[in-house]
């Protein structure tokens, strides 16, 4: 059985010093809407001193009061409460003031002696609804502007790999799990260090809120600064852990990381360190997982050591680094199971003909299809490959006109 939602009676503040006009307005309103609550103040000063604006849905304001004349009272009232719904009351000989009042912020004007109860209550309700609509539109616009500004700021935190001058090429994909967000707690980056070593990282701050997103961005920027400052590779994760411990907003917050480095004199070898993170995958006709010793995530114990593994790579190699948001989607054909690394290897085998430029987004698309909907966790993917000459790795806006980077896909 449906229930009628009770309506809250309108509360109208009448600012009027003429007892006859007060009586007339009260009778007209009561005739149409007996439940309407009318509050009367003899002057604007009284209304403000008694704080009668608070809680009122609409103000009926006489433009000729003892202490104010013309539009002065309207200006004072809207100065105190810019969101107030105001209908002004004018005399027969100053109807033009009503038009000016609407132009100055009033919702409507009424001419004394020309209104009946229907016109009066309609004007009040119109003023209330119009002000509510304007306030809603204003809030919506403010929310849209705030969301757009947040998106611009977050987008600015997404990295552009700094690999100019290196034969290593990077493709990336990023999608935040939080609604209406550009970045989450996952992060990635790739940087050519001052000694010519290419460093890359993918990480995941535990949690999914804005604080974790901010921490992930901070860790990414800090890691880049450490690399560009020439910090030795074995010290990068310990230094990054110090940043995490000093900046995290919760004591137990940790971060998983996969880091790789490639020396210019050993381009067919990659050094891998894992801190509680899924291992990278070498692409090719038969994709395979690199399985170094997995250390504890950053932020667990201060004396953790992350062992390295040197992995030989075939000429024209490609290496996939990713966060666990990619592999935690469910698989309908395996009830209760998730994609995990084994499923990702299967997908990579099925998609081996896909161009490297399209592969990261394609993997996410396939994972979402298997999951039956969007992936709930953040997803960060960094695809590295040794398939470009040093000049080809420069950003597109620094390339000579008409020249495009060369690409090769794994055969």
What does this structure look like?
By secondary structure, the chain is of the alpha/beta class. The protein has two domains: 11-139, 3-Layer(aba) Sandwich (Rossmann fold); 162-398, Phosphatase 2c, domain 1, CATH 3.60.40.10. Helix content is 33%, strand content 20%. It contains nine helices and 16 strands. Strands 7, 8, 9, 10, 13 and 14 form a six-stranded mixed sheet that branches. A five-stranded parallel sheet has the order 2-1-3-4-5, with helices on both faces. Strand 9 and strand 10 (269-275) form a beta hairpin. Helix 1 crosses helix 5. Residues 1-6 and 389-411 have low confidence and may be disordered.
Average pLDDT rating? 85
Estimate percent helicity: 25-40%
- Give the CA-based shape: elongated
Name the CATH superfamily assignment of the largest domain: PPM-type phosphatase domain
Q: Name the beta content range.
A: 15-25%
Distance between the termini: 67 Å
Radius of gyration: 33 Å
CATH architecture heading of the largest domain: 4-Layer Sandwich
Tally of structural domains: 2
CATH class of the largest domain: Alpha Beta
Order of helices and strands: EHEHEHEHEHEEEHHEEEEEEEHHE
Number of helices, where a helix is a run of at least 4 consecutive DSSP H or I residues? 9
Strand elements, count: 16
Structural class: alpha/beta
Query: What kind of sheet is the major sheet?
Result: 6 strands, mixed
Low-confidence residue ranges? 1-6, 389-411
CATH names the topology of the largest domain as Phosphatase 2c, domain 1
